[in-house]
Specification:
The structure is a single chain. By secondary structure, this protein is mainly α. The protein folds into two domains: about 120 residues; about 230 residues, no CATH class. The chain is built from 19 helices and no strands. It is globular and about 65 Å long. The termini are far apart. The relative contact order is 0.13.
């Protein structure tokens, strides 16, 4: 079965890559990089797993890992080549641009500074994980799409959401994780040096404390699925709100499927993030019916837990809320360790010293289950505050674009960017969430595109 999955995914990716590169080279449409990334990111880990299981080639897998970075770099180079005079390019920096630039400059300093126990190669790989999202933001910042192209962007997100739910249903029917067929455990063992764990032979992430399955669909793990559905729900909601009633069924379906996938993932942080996103959207955009909808969901969940849930699930929820279960306690211990490091080293301990990135070894790792503290440990309080400000102004400026722009498609993107970044705030407290390629990198592209529109509003042109 894994070979069939490998062949199908290979055909999809080769076709998408050829289509994108053809647009790059023949028409200079470097902006189309986002369409390839949309196709590649959700299936990234599954594809790497079946590739290794089918070919047993470490070199091929490593090449496919670098492909996502290479295609972004090619897009940036083509952007430069297609400018008649790059030195005359009108750079109108907004605050979000400056904060992103400041964070990258700080990361560059720590890359070369003799700080920390990580070797230069580890620092370089970690820095790559920081700089590529900034390049994606830069590409979004300089992208000008017509309505049809923006529509294609949203259609792909809707297809991913529906397909993810479809795979969830197959997993439920077979009572098995998709990753059990794709060689996830072997891939993790050989490529990432992570031994299989848990009762299902994958990792502890794929199960709850009650030893029930947490499903991931074709995403890397249940946590990434849980975070990624925020994108599909936000996109479906804004299209539902801005479309005629007779055309709204597809968007209702997308929202229902994303909520169902959220339940299948059994992620506590993502559940909280989902409700935070709903209330944020409702309050900011004055959608009073959505507030009632959110309150109804919360009440339904409470009633279910108290009167209908199994005893194991009941105590799982109680222990989570009181920080008494093993996972919650683990988060708190990681936070304390990171905070102690920041107090002792307020200017940072260097790159590749915190988080769950492959370049961070267990021997030197300090903390790692809070994106804010991960930056705080490595880049100091300055790095953490830059990141917090970057998120904050990305959200507030996107809200402003949503309210002021006359372009419906730009407003839909601004809405999606603001909602997703707000929804991710809670997962960022409990995970190295910037590693979730689909939701993190794509949302940074959306923010970049939105800041392009913000620049037009502020300066009167791009």
């Amino acid at each position: 079965m894994h070979f069939v999955i490998f062949i199908c995914l290979s055909i999809l990716l080769v076709f998408t890559l050829f289509w994108a590169l053809r647009k790059f080279v023949l028409k200079g449409k470097w902006e189309y990089v986002i369409f390839f990334l949309l196709a590649y990111f959700p299936i990234y880990t599954v594809y790497l797993s079946v590739t290794y299981l089918s070919t047993e080639s470490v070199v091929l897998v490593k090449s496919l890992q670098f492909l996502k970075d290479l295609i972004v770099i090619i897009a940036v180079l083509i952007f430069i080549l297609y400018q008649k005079n790059i030195f005359d390019y009108p750079f109108k920096l907004v605050l979000v641009d400056k904060l992103f630039l400041g964070l990258m400059l700080l990361g560059t300093f720590f890359l070369f500074a003799p700080v920390g126990e990580g070797d230069f190669l580890s620092k370089l790989f970690y820095f790559k994980g920081m700089i590529i999202p900034s390049l994606i933001y830069f590409l979004g910042r300089n992208t000008i799409f017509n309505d049809e192209e923006v529509g294609l962007f949203f259609k792909i997100i809707f297809i991913i959401s529906l397909a993810g739910f479809g795979v969830n249903l197959i997993e439920v029917a077979l009572d098995t994780h998709l990753q059990s067929f794709t060689g996830y455990a072997v891939f993790n063992n050989v490529i990432n040096n992570i031994e299989p764990s848990g009762n299902f032979g994958l990792s502890w992430t794929f199960e709850t404390q009650a030893v029930t399955k947490r499903l991931a669909s074709f995403f890397s793990d249940p946590l990434e699925l849980a975070s990624s559905v925020l994108m599909g729900f936000a996109a479906g909601l804004i299209w539902f709100l801005t479309s005629k009633k007779e055309d709204s069924f597809p968007y209702i379906l997308v929202m229902i499927c994303t909520m169902a996938s959220l339940f299948f993932s059994s992620s506590r942080a993502a559940f909280g993030a989902f409700f935070i996103m709903i209330f944020f959207i409702a309050l900011i955009f004055k959608l009073h019916k959505l507030i009632l909808f959110g309150l109804g969901l919360v009440l339904t969940f409470v009633v279910f837990v108290i009167f209908f849930a199994s005893e194991d699930f009941y105590f799982f929820v109680i222990d989570t809320l009181t920080f008494q279960n093993a996972s919650s306690v683990g988060h708190v211990l990681e936070w304390i360790t990171a905070l102690e490091s920041m107090i002792e080293n307020p200017f940072g301990v260097g790159l590749a010293m915190s988080g769950n990135s492959g370049s961070v070894t267990d021997e030197v790792r300090v903390g790692g289950e809070n994106q804010f503290l991960i930056y705080g440990v490595q880049l100091g309080f300055l790095g953490m505050f830059l990141y917090i400000l970057l998120l904050g102004y990305s959200i507030t400026r996107s809200i402003r674009v949503f309210r002021l722009t006359d372009n419906v498609m730009s407003a839909r993107l601004a809405f999606t960017g603001a909602a997703v970044k707000t929804g991710l705030l809670l997962p960022l407290f409990t995970a190295n969430a910037e590693m979730y390629l689909y939701i993190s990198w794509v949302s940074w592209w959306v923010i970049g595109y939105t800041m392009n529109e913000y620049s037009k509003i502020k300066y009167g042109k791009a």
